[in-house]
């Protein structure tokens, strides 16, 4: 019996003729099917609790004191920011310790390249799975926003791919960093000096115009800032301004640079 026969046996396996990286996606999906319960809080319940807290708690104070933010109720303003922030959490979580574990602890990536898959397939499968998972979470989040009456435009449906792109713009460079680490302590620094500042200052909770000019200029460099701006514009009926396409291009740039360095990192760790 040949290796090709073994690798395609069973109705649940991808068939011959599919791109080989689909097998990596299938592996990630299979693993997730066994562990999905642990991600419900981060992916669904936590954003829902944020929306309730912001609308009933902080939102009532902001709306009473100033009539909202940028002409809209505070919950309408903060909800799309929380959507992008959720993508930040998932993208970094799935591209940091999980990648380091696949390279150093569980060494699942070494097992993968012992099959017909190569390091390129492993990377594409990894990022494709993140895009699929984040799209599913974003769909649920947008649905919850609809229940709360926070979708002011039919363009809000485009916030789902916008959120997934935001996740990829963050997870790709995070993967590149993870491929160059040898212990978990260095990844903890990424969370403290990368994730936390983005979460606090990228415009999730307040307009960037409230920041000092020099700090606003720095914050504009962050990929999450573009994700927040794009999701907010699509859900608040602000229209498709040309500047939004610049945000899309900027996130694609982050993804492309991260992909390149992720690829070289995988090649160095798995092949050379």
Write the layout of secondary structure elements.
Elements: H1 3-8, H2 21-35, H3 40-66, H4 74-95, H5 97-105, H6 108-113, H7 119-147, H8 159-178, H9 184-201, H10 213-219, H11 223-235, H12 242-270
Structure description:
Residues 38-269 form the ABC transmembrane type-2 domain. The chain crosses the membrane at residues 40-62, 82-106, 127-149, 155-177, 189-208, 244-263. Pfam families: ABC2_membrane (PF01061). By secondary structure, the chain is mostly helical. It has one domain. 74% of the residues lie in helices and 0% in strands. It is built from twelve helices and no strands. It has helices at residues 3-8, 21-35, 40-66, 74-95, 97-105, 108-113, 119-147, 159-178, 184-201, 213-219, 223-235, 242-270. The longest helix has 29 residues, at 119-147. The two termini are 31 Å apart. The model is unreliable at 1-12 (pLDDT under 50).
Q: Please state the CA-atom Rg, rounded to the nearest Å.
A: 20 Å
Rounded mean pLDDT score: 86
- Structural class computed from helices and strand pairing: mainly alpha
Terminal Cα span = 31 Å
Put simply, the count of helices is 12
What is the count of β-strands?
Answer: 0
| Low-pLDDT stretches | 1-12
As a percent range, the share of helical residues equals over 70%
Hey, roughly how much beta strand do the residues contain?
A: under 5%
Largest sheet: none
């Amino acid at each position: 019996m040949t290796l090709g026969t073994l690798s395609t046996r069973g109705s649940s396996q991808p068939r011959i003729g599919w791109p080989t990286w689909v097998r990596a996606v299938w592996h990630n999906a299979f693993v997730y099917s066994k562990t999905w319960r642990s991600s419900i809080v981060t992916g669904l319940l936590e954003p829902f609790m944020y929306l309730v807290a912001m609308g009933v708690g902080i939102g009532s104070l902001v709306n009473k004191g100033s009539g909202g933010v940028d002409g809209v109720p505070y919950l309408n303003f903060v909800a799309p920011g929380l959507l992008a922030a959720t993508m930040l959490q998932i993208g970094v979580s799935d591209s940091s310790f999980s990648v380091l574990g696949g390279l150093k602890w569980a060494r699942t990536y070494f097992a993968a390249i012992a099959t017909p898959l190569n390091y390129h397939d492993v990377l594409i499968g990894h990022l494709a799975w993140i895009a699929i998972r984040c799209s599913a979470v974003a769909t649920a989040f947008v649905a919850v926003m609809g229940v709360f009456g926070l979708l002011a435009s039919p363009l809000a449906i485009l916030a789902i791919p916008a959120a997934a792109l935001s996740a990829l713009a963050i997870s790709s460079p995070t993967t590149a960093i993870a491929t160059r680490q040898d212990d978990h302590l260095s990844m903890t620094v990424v969370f403290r000096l990368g994730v936390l500042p983005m979460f606090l200052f990228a415009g999730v909770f307040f307009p960037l115009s409230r920041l000092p000019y020099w700090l606003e200029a720095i914050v504009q460099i962050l990929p999450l800032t573009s994700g927040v701006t794009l999701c907010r514009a699509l859900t608040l009926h602000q229209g498709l301004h040309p500047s939004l396409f610049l945000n899309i291009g900027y996130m694609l740039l982050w993804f492309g640079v991260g992909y390149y360095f992720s690829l070289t990192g995988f090649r160095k760790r798995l092949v050379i």
